[in-house]
Specification:
With 44 residues, the chain is mainly beta. Helices cover 9% and strands 27% of the residues.
Length: 44
């Protein structure tokens, strides 16, 4: 969450979501709103 506060919203829009890419496992949305995204869902 500290990273999301460092985004310069003057130069860009606010981020629509915060996600973490993992090497495998299941994808899910954490209770704090962070999306956990397995690398295998991104394509071949």
């Amino acid at each position: 969450m500290r990273f999301a506060r460092k985004i310069d919203s003057v130069l860009t829009d606010e981020p629509s979501m915060l996600g973490v890419i993992t090497p495998g496992g299941y994808g899910y949305m954490r209770s704090d709103g962070v999306a956990v995204i397995p690398m295998t869902t991104l394509g071949p």
